[in-house]
Structures are given as C-alpha cells and as structure tokens.
Amino acid sequence: MDLLFIRDSFVGLLAGVPLTLQLTLIAFSIGVVIAIILALMRMSGIRSLDWVARTYVFLFRGTPLLVQIFLIYYGLGQFRPTLQSLGLWQFFREPYWCAILALSLNTAAYGSEILRGALRSVPPREVEAARACGMSGLLLYRRIILPIALRQALPAYGNELILMVKATSLASIITMMDVTGIAARLISSSYRPVEVFIAAGAIYLIINFLLTRLVGLLDWWLTPHLRAPPASSNTMEKVNV
Amino acid sequence: MEFLDLVGFGPEGWGKSLLLAALVTIMVAMAGFALGIVIGGLVAWAKLAGGTATRIFADTYTTVLRGVPDLLVIYLFYFGGSLLLSAIFRLWSDGGFVGIPPFIAGATAIGVVSGAYQAEVFRGAFRSLSTGEIEAGKAVGMHRLLLFRRIIAPQVARHAIPGIGNVWQMTLKESALVSVTGLVEILRQAQIAAGSTRKPFEFYLIAAALFLVITWLSQRIFDWLEKRASRSMVREAA
C-alpha cells in the first residue's frame, strides 16, 4: 500500500467531483418533478393515466440503468437523420445530456413509488377535517396533504439521492470523466486498483456523508413538532408570570 | 420481417447467443446473490451479537459497500484479482500476467455488494422477532444452535423474504455492470451484436426486454414465496 500514491490519486480524482455533483443534482431535480407527475397520475383515479404511469415504472425499474443509458446514447444515434431534422441531435449526441436524461427518467420511476407511498400515508381524517373547514383542491394539497406526505417521504427520498450519487458513476462508461471515469483511467495507467479504489471510495463516502447530513438537517427542520420541547425552565417562568 | 431475422434463430439471427447470454446473466447474478446471502448472514450476526471490534468491522463494511459505486467495486475485484493471481503465480513460475476470469471477478464483486444490503435485511428481520420467543426457547432448554435452527432461522427467513426479493432484483440489474470486464452476459452480447450489425437500438431494446422478463418472473416467484411463507400468519383484515 502506497500512501503517497493514494494521496496523489485523491487529488487527481477531485477534478471529477464537480461533474459527479452536477449529474447528481440536475438529474435528481428533474427526476423529482417527473416523479411528482407520475405519483399524481397513479393517484388520479383516471384509469388510462394510472396505466401509463404504472407501465413507465414497470419498464424503468425492471431494466438496468446501464441498458437505459446505452439505449439512449448509442441506440438513438441510429436515428440521427430524424433527430437532426427535429433539431434534437445537438442534445442526443452529447454523452452529458444522454446521461442526465437516462438518470432522471430512472430515478423518477423509483421516486414516484416513494411519493405514492407517502401520499397514501396521509391520514384520511386530516383530509376530512380540512374538507370540513372548506378546503379543497390546491389549497388542500398545499396546506394539508403535501406537508404531511413530504415529511413522510423525506427519509426514503434521501436514500434515493445517495443511490443517485452512485448511479452517476455509470456515466463514465459513456466517456464522461466523473470521479469513476478518472478512477478507471488511473487504474489502467498505473495498475494499482487498490489504492485508486481507496481514494475514489473515500470521495464518494464523503459526498454521501455530507448529503445524508443535509437530508437529516432538512428532516429536523421540517419536524419541529416531533422534537423535545426546549429547556423547560423558560416556559415555566412564562407560565408563572 | 427484418427485425425478426436479426434476433431470431436463423443463420443470420442472434437469438441463440442472446439466450445463452441471458443464462450467463442469471448465473452470475445467482452466484453473487448466494455469496451475498452468506456474507449478509455473517455480517448481520456480527452486528447483532459481536464484540465491539467485530461490530465496528461489520458497520464499516456495510457503510463502505453501500456508499461506493458498484462499478468501482467491480473494477477493484477485476483488476485487483488479476494482480493478486499474478503475484501468486509468480511464486513458483517466472510469472507474467494472469487474468482473473471475469465471471469470478464479477460474481465476487456483486456478491460483496449485495452482502452489505442483505446484512441490513437480515438484521431488520431479526429485530422483528419477539424476544419472548427466544426466552421461551431458552426456558425449555434449547441450545444456541437448536434455538437458531428451530426458532430464529425460520422466522427471520420469513420476515426477510420481501427484502431479499429487493436485493435479488438489485443484484440482477447490477450484473449488467459486469459487462465492463468483458463477460458475455446480456448487455455485452447486445454490444457485440450492435457493433457487427450497426443496429444498436434494436439490440439494446432486446437486452432491456430480456432483463424485463427475468425481473418480472423473479417478482412473481418472490410474491409466491411471500404468500406461502405467511400463510400461517394471522392477518388483520385489510
């Protein structure tokens, strides 16, 4: 084990961090939007919408992400003339956009299941109570259903974010130089897989640790009602006064 | 039809190679999955009953393997395994490079990753066991092994089925990554066919369809297992 080489690899691999983070955050944000649409389609009670969303989730969860990436990046290249005439070739010729598209479509399928579970966990009594107060439609969603559902979904969605960070490594197979892409190049040029693995693994662990903490912080901030009340002496004084 | 000739079983068709590749996918996933169950069981045991040192080791293992991309783990086992093999062979011959078979490297890599997830599944399933049952077993004089065989293992297995099903689906999809080592499984075979026919779209679509069939069938099997395992459990009215 060569500590100096690990350190050098670590420094070299840091150059891939911006790309890894970009792929994660852009694809994740687009994925959340699609996931919300899919979850609402499944909860809509309209049979055709439900069926479309169901099929989408089945297809994307039943096949490996790498196959989806290849299908979009290499597969669609076959239709270059058509894409060119539609003006979409600029998009599909870049591995960057293909990776983002595949990652977003993929995470949306998993995310919609998380959101659906969360929406179903909203107690019907809360909804009934809100209806009794005269809330309906968007107001009901904004004030009652979404706040409850989002809190419920947050821990599972945090896991999905970590899975996303790991999934971006597949972009390296279609030539992207993210952390894994640089690691693969380092391994084949130095032939020291163990050292490079330690350095790259450390980077991913640090990213994932920070993101987990961030999600934890968000969870803490969103659930003040579950926290222990702050030091009791203060409230006692107030009561006495 | 042109498409059917391409993927059919005729002289120009890729059907046979694709089916063989599907078999390789299933085999490498099963080998990794089996290894994962063994590792997962041991790691869960270490987490639940181990001393401080074993627990720290087990926690590090699950944290690292669940936090690092699987692709990196596959590179580690493929290149690292070859390095190790070469070093061993150099002991009694003047060596040269010995490559590790991609199947072994791939199965080990996905096994080690799935072990980390299995460990959490087993641990969760053990937690759902009521302590009263274990105490009752001890009270009637069961030894640790007997207690494990008669009381703990059957119930943990039953509770773990849905989680194990998830890990299997994950392992199966992860096996596509082993294609980077050159193992001719579904995706690699599709790549080869796409390269020689210049029809990537058709072949990656076929690859996706093959995976879909396998994941769908496995889901049916796990659903059946879950139903079977829980037939004696009292269920609250839904």
What report would you give on this structure?
The complex is a heterodimer of chains A (241) and B (238). Chain A has helices at 3-13, 17-43, 47-62, 65-75, 80-86, 89-92, 95-120, 124-132, 137-167, 179-190, 193-222, 232-240. Chain A has 241 residues and is an all-alpha fold. The longest helix of chain A is centred in the middle third of the chain and has 31 residues, at 137-167. The radius of gyration of chain A is 23 Å and the shape is flat. The model of chain A has no long low-confidence stretch (mean pLDDT 91). Chain B has 238 residues and is mainly alpha-helical. Chain B has helices spanning 2-7, 15-49, 52-67, 70-89, 102-127, 131-139, 144-174, 186-197, 200-229. The termini of chain B are far apart. Classes of the chains: A mainly alpha (241), B mainly alpha (238). The A-B interface holds A 58-59, 61-68, 70-71, 74-79, 162, 166-170, 172-173, 180, 183-184, 187, 191, 193-194, 197, 200-201, 204-205, 208-209 and B 63-64, 67-73, 75-76, 78-80, 83, 173-177, 179-180, 187, 190-191, 194, 198-201, 204-205, 207-208, 211-212, 215-216.
Protein topology:
The complex is a heterodimer of chains A (241) and B (238).
Chain A: H1 3-13, H2 17-43, H3 47-62, H4 65-75, H5 80-86, H6 89-92, H7 95-120, H8 124-132, H9 137-167, H10 179-190, H11 193-222, H12 232-240
Helix pairs in contact in A: 1-11, 2-3, 2-7, 2-9, 3-7, 4-7, 7-9, 9-11, 10-11
Chain B: H1 2-7, H2 15-49, H3 52-67, H4 70-89, H5 102-127, H6 131-139, H7 144-174, H8 186-197, H9 200-229
Protein name (chain A): ABC transporter permease
Organism (chain A): Mesorhizobium shangrilense
Subcellular location (chain A): Cell inner membrane; Cell membrane
